[in-house]
Amino acid sequence: MGKVPEFKDSEEEARYWDKESIVDHLDELEPVDHVEVREPLVHTLSIRLTVEDMEQLRELGKRRGLGITTMARTLVRQGLQNPEVMALLDQDVRAALAKLAEQVKMPGLLVLQQSQLDALADLVKDKLAGTPVERGAMTNQAEVGEQPAAAARA
Description:
Layout: H1 10-19, H2 51-64, H3 68-80, H4 83-103, E1 109-113, H5 114-129, E2 148-153
Antiparallel strand pairs: 1-2
Helix pairs in contact: 2-3, 4-5
């Protein structure tokens, strides 16, 4: 049998192996020292895209030899690792702090009650996890007898 050729993309490689058997190429195989097993993908996300975005995603994947879902997953991972994307999350947290400072009528100094501190911690955790945050989760209403838990510069 001939040597395994170089492939332009994964689709071309898939067509090749649909017709060929690995048994015919055993003499070309080399031992490996390490095999990395990735965490299985278990969550599904359904999103709506414009026709233009879908075509752009398909074309980008095609140029990289990737299917459309793999290309979309790659772009999501890259976005989440991008400091500019993370900075957008930080802006949401700063906005929540500014809103609280305005509510207690002390711009620049923020005294948080325990419920507000907990809500802020939940906001940060939810933003990092990508979970939607309930509107009105941050309020300036103190529970009876509650003491301020933290002070910060906004």
